[in-house]
Design brief:
About 30% of the residues lie in helices and about 25% in strands. With about 475 residues, the protein is of the alpha/beta class. The structure holds flavin-adenine dinucleotide and nicotinamide-adenine-dinucleotide. It holds the Pfam family Pyr_redox_dim.
Amino acid sequence: MPPVYSQTQLLIIGGGPGGYVAAIRAAQLGLKVTLVEGKRLGGTCLNVGCIPSKALIHAAEAFAQAREQAYGRSELGISVSSAQLDLSKTIAWKDGIVAKLTGGVGALLKKHGVTVVQGWAEVIDGKTVEITQPGAEAGDSPQRIQCEHLLLAAGSQEIELPFLPFGGGHGRVVSSTEALSFADVPQHLVVVGGGYIGLELGTVWRKLGAEVTVVEAQDRILPAYDADLVKPVAQSLTKLGIKLLTAHRVEGLNADGTALTVRDPQGALLELPADKILVAVGRKPRTSGWGLEHLMLDMAGRAVKVDAQCRTSMKNVWAIGDLTGEPLLAHRAMAQGELVAEVIAGHNRRFEPASIPAVCFTDPEIVVAGHTPASAEAEGAKHGFKVLQALFPFAANGRALSLEAPEGFVRVVARADNHFILGWQAVGAAVSELSAAFGLSLEMGARLEDVAHTIHSHPTLGEAVQEACLRALGQALHI
Ligand code: FAD
Ligand code: NAD
């Protein structure tokens, strides 16, 4: 059967944070927009990423607190007779949040007049995409959509280890997607990869009652973060009872597939029995299986190469989000989505953020924005300026103490000559919320005095942000 053609101005492949934000903004700007999504609106982030993981982190913490209270270990004088977990209810609650948010995305797209097509897109050429819709029969005419602009927002997928394929070990070996919906709390969970996912979800299942071992190839967990930030997290993981095996090499499954075989730094082989093995060794742009190769675009490693306006190497073909490489973060995908829609609509915008903050939702949390002391020193050496840094510990912050969270600190990094702020780092309970202040100060080009002389409400964790700047200026008040 010959294909049936329809036309649109902007065709977007992928309804994740990048694609759906681009669709909304483009529609606001008057473009006729069609968005094709193969699975569910909201993409990785809303369905099997940011949102469900953060919901489980919250639920696990609530259960861990209840258990402490049941064991009579609460310093607040609260006790309960016992703490019980109905995991099916926890998972249903998490799924309810996901459904609310993904339904909300659908409603927003509808409100803005975006045509949403459910189906898998295959790129035919830079202006034509063929859609395989669910339930299509072999004799049906293929549906093709032609467009003026093609926006690629196909996201990323988990990296599979060849010697530890997903589903191996009689279904033991899983990705983060399955680890967000286990039917039972595993007895022994082994996590391969001590990065974002491994530590966030490892902590969840430990707090819900599993024995958890994290196997990390590098000599420390969260190798991408600086050691001062990681130390309180490593201490807390150990206190929680999570076993951290750093500098260990994963070899595969044992003969009957019931344990993970790893080699320790001295070369000895260990077997780690596990009823679930979560492999979280990174994600990669989704570049195959949907005809991307037909476009022969320039690539940047495994990612689609884009310029500061999210243009690919082919005219009127654009790309955003995880497909375009690091950092693989939802807020970057959304920011690019908003920007590319404006560029396509004729506005003059460039993607040149002062920082893309990153948060690790461990316990305690880590947030970084802009330069670390080390990267600032390197910049200083290149451009001839000296660097100041100052740290304010939460142990001296009233709000942190009242939240039972005295661990951690806020650190500011600035130029010594003109006090221009170059970066922020924090580790502590709920510091993810400080990322807004950090991002804003960097984007606005704030100096230490701007933050130091801003009145911060008392008592809040934000006062540590102000105090870090006061300390950098030699004017610390509370330390
Ligand atoms: P995606 O969200 O991956 O969306 C791409 C969409 O395209 C998908 O829905 C897919 O089905 C669709 N698609 C792909 N190919 C086709 C095709 N051919 N036809 C039709 N549709 C197609 N980031 C954060 O910033 N904060 C966090 O806390 C965080 N937590 C995470 C936790 C986990 C467990 C995981 C896995 C990821 C997490 N991330 C987090 C990363 C975040 O999910 C991604 O950075 C973000 O989803 C990227 O958005 P995107 O739009 O580029 O791609
Ligand atoms: P990651 O890059 O954060 O961590 C992967 C870890 O696995 C690294 O520490 C790496 O050294 C280790 N590793 C690699 N190969 C290994 C091996 N063979 N054996 C043992 N360890 C090995 O990747 P991730 O945790 O899978 O997360 C993927 C991406 O998803 C992240 O990079 C991030 O962009 C995004 N994400 C973000 C958040 C957040 O923003 N809070 C949360 C989850 C995921």
